[in-house]
Specification:
The chain has 245 residues and is of the alpha+beta class. It contains four helices and nine strands; from the N terminus they run ααββββααβββββ. A hairpin with a 3-residue loop joins strand 1 and strand 2. About 8% of the residues have low confidence.
Length: 245
């Protein structure tokens, strides 16, 4: 019996352990590399999409904060004797408002403008320190005008750069119509003798235009940014009631 089993084992062909051929290995490596590339492209696309969404969200929050501050500034406008209260010179909008700090009856001068920074236009807000006297208010008013035209380093330290802005336009609501503040119907009378260029508030006499019933700002956001297009924001003087837009 034993001799028979030995004979059978001898007669059977030996078993060879078969491995992968070189071609099979190359095919497997190619498939794995393709899957890795597709996975990387998918992850890269997800990362890019997430970055774009985050950038858009950040710009949107900044725009919302800027518009909220714009409305808050206009809601707090006060018109001291001899001051326009709100003035648009074609480049900057200046206004006098109640101070947001706890300093009693203190006021501040605020200015909004668009300025190019490194080839890109931005919407920028400037605010003076709180003022308590007429002389301080006149100085801050003139400083805001200087900032809107040709700001120096001292003025730039008081500004906040908001969002990229291609252009902006301002309209006043007066006599039941939106008009250009610089049109002849809204033009201020010649300043009295003794006033200085860029600072009409220095003169304490002479007619001063009343605050407009409303102010419209039209913002054109540049192409190639997370937020683009044209945005219109209307503000109506709270004391009017009812609202017009």
């Amino acid at each position: 019996m034993t001799s028979t089993l030995v004979a059978l084992r001898t007669a059977l062909p030996p078993r060879h352990q078969r491995g992968f051929t070189l071609i099979e290995l190359l095919v497997a490596i190619g498939v794995m590399a393709l899957m890795a590339g597709l996975t990387w492209r998918g992850l890269d696309g997800m990362t890019r999409a997430q970055d774009q969404v985050q950038a858009r969200a950040d710009k949107l929050l900044t725009l919302q904060a800027g518009l909220a501050q714009w409305t808050a500034d206009l809601d707090a406008v006060q018109q001291p004797p001899g001051f326009e209260g709100v003035d648009w010179d074609g480049r900057a909008l200046r206004l006098t408002r109640r101070s947001s700090s706890d300093q009693g009856s203190a006021m501040t001068v605020v200015a909004w403008a668009r300025r190019d920074i490194d080839g890109t236009g931005y919407w920028i807000r400037w605010q003076s320190p709180p003022v308590n006297t007429r002389a301080q208010l006149q100085t801050a008013w003139a400083r805001a005008a200087q900032w809107g035209q040709n700001p120096g380093d001292a003025e730039k330290r008081l500004e906040v750069v908001l969002i990229p802005l291609q252009e902006w336009r301002i309209f006043y609501f007066r006599a039941d119509a939106w008009t250009n503040p610089l049109s002849s119907d809204n033009a201020a009378p010649p300043p009295p003798i003794g006033s200085t260029p860029g600072n009409p508030a220095v003169a304490s006499t002479g007619p001063v235009l009343a605050l407009p019933d409303g102010i419209r700002v039209v913002l054109t956001l540049p192409e190639g940014q997370p937020l683009t297009g044209t945005l219109t924001k209307d503000w109506i003087r709270p004391t009017l009631g009812g609202g017009k837009s």
